[in-house]
Design a protein that fits this description.
This protein is α+β, with helices and mostly antiparallel strands and 416 residues long. The chain folds into two domains: 37-133, Rieske [2Fe-2S] iron-sulphur domain (Rieske Iron-sulfur Protein), CATH 2.102.10.10; 148-412, Naphthalene 1,2-dioxygenase Alpha Subunit, Chain A, domain 1 (Alpha-Beta Complex). It has helices spanning 16-19, 26-31, 117-121, 185-191, 196-205, 329-334, 338-343, 361-378, 407-412; strands spanning 2-3, 10-11, 36-40, 49-53, 56-62, 68-71, 86-87, 92-93, 100-101, 107-109, 130-133, 136-139, 164-169, 221-226, 230-238, 244-252, 256-258, 270-274, 277-285, 288-300, 303-304, 401-405. It binds FE2/S2 (inorganic) cluster and fe (ii) ion.
């Protein structure tokens, strides 16, 4: 308990079980049972890339032969960071005395040593397994040898499809500067199942930030749904143009969100138009997060469709980088956004002080299901959504879409 103010009130500690992500922490161990994205494939060029995820610093590299490695930064010899290393044909060479490490961490050359020493010493730089899919580099930081499959959710499983190409993106990044938000990952993740804030923060307070037809109309009804993968909501309302929208959004345990098109104009009938990107909320450490997405980009004449934009590419692209926010304090006060709202909850929200109400049902459901995952890991079981059977890893059905009903169709499905 920390002394808080002149009235002698105290601030309880944050909910460590759900929020902390370091090695050995309950949620950190859940997140380590899943492949986590750490970089765009295109970011691994002829230089190593240092990243931080789940409170651990890592050095990523792509050998000249194209293999991706992920090692702990400090060289096993005398600790120089491998971020200064040189990428070679089959590994990364430490800049200091030239020890050469393969992507799996095995040291295969010690140029300052007599022959035979490298073999005898048999050094392994600690390394995590990596995989690449959809333009993203993923790392598995769970116990050695327990890597599951990368879940093939329907929107990113392109087997048998020729209408999209997958692109790895940092959707909220802007151009070239890594997007980092200065608060705990869960504040960002659970925001996905907080649809009521769309009507207040993004409409009433800041204007229609999503340039969408969906933000104006009659009073919506919102239902929260316990799904096989996590938690979803359905948002239904009559729009100003008398069409009706049914919008379903799903948060997949533990840290994936599927946001259907935020720019939907709501002017033409459509049935369950699927969201086009799969986004991971990635904890950097306990007080910072970033995000990576695989975007199913539509093809036109065999080429990525020009002028098309991912559905979650919001104007928050104006705010790249945690320390390079180009907006003034006054601008942020006049037009607060997700970032202000989420960071404003404290670096790590204090759940014990919250007064949860009926509109927070999605948050409550999500937290409860995350605790079930924590319990599974404590019981030495796979948490839900770990996939190991390739036959079950095909177009896993998800629940994020927009449906627009025009009046005559609305009559047919009046109960919707
Ligand atoms: S510190 Fe890396 S080779 Fe010496
Ligand atoms: Fe938002």
């Amino acid at each position: 308990m920390i002394e808080n103010n002149a009235y002698g009130q105290t601030t309880p500690s944050e909910d460590i079980e759900l929020t902390h992500v370091e090695q050995g922490s309950p949620m950190g161990e859940v997140l380590r049972r899943f492949w986590q994205p750490v970089a765009l494939s295109e970011e691994l060029t002829d230089l190593p890339k240092k990243v931080k995820i789940l409170c651990e610093e890592l050095v990523l590299f792509r050998t000249k032969q194209g293999k991706v490695g992920c090692v702990l930064p400090h060289c096993s010899h005398r600790g120089t960071s491998l971020e200064w290393g040189r990428i070679e044909e089959n590994g990364i060479r430490c800049c200091y005395h030239g020890w050469l490490y393969q992507p799996d961490g095995k040291c295969v050359e010690m140029p300052c040593e007599p022959s035979g020493v490298c073999e005898r010493m048999n050094v392994h730089q600690p390394a995590y397994p990596t995989t690449e899919y959809g333009g993203l580099v993923f790392v598995y930081m769970g116990p050695a040898g327990t890597e599951p499959l990368l879940p093939m959710y329907d929107i990113i499983d392109t087997r048998g499809r020729d209408d999209v190409v997958l692109k790895g993106m940092k959707l909220w990044e802007g151009q070239g500067i890594g997007y980092v938000q200065d608060c705990n990952w869960l504040q960002n993740h659970e925001n996905a199942v907080d649809p009521w804030h769309l009507l207040i923060l993004h409409q009433m307070i800041s204007g229609d930030q999503f340039t969408s037809g969906l933000m104006h109309g009659g009073k919506p009804t919102i239902e929260f749904i316990d799904t096989p993968l996590g938690v979803a909501y359905e948002f239904r309302r009559e729009l100003l143009n008398k069409n009706r929208v049914i919008r379903s959004l799903e948060a997949i345990l533990p840290n994936v969100i599927l946001v259907p098109n935020l720019h939907e104009p709501g002017d033409a009938a459509k049935y369950q138009e699927k969201c086009t990107e799969c986004t991971w909320t990635v904890p950097v450490d306990n007080e910072h997060l970033t995000a990576f997405s695989i975007v199913a980009w539509p093809l036109e004449n065999g080429q990525p469709k020009k002028g098309w934009k991912p559905g979650t590419d919001t104007r928050t692209a104006l705010r790249p980088g945690s320390t390079t926010n180009p907006l003034s304090y006054e601008q942020r006060q006049r037009r607060p956004d997700d970032r202000e709202a989420q960071e404003g909850q404290r670096p790590i929200a204090v759940h014990a002080l919250e007064k949860l109400a009926t509109s927070d049902r999605g948050i409550v459901m999500l937290r409860r299901k995350l605790r079930e995952q924590i319990k599974a890991v404590k019981d030495n079981k796979d948490p839900s959504n770990v996939v190991r059977d390739p036959d079950l890893n095909r177009a896993i059905p998800t629940r994020s879409w927009n449906t627009i009903l025009v009046p005559k169709e609305a009559g047919v499905t009046a109960e919707a």
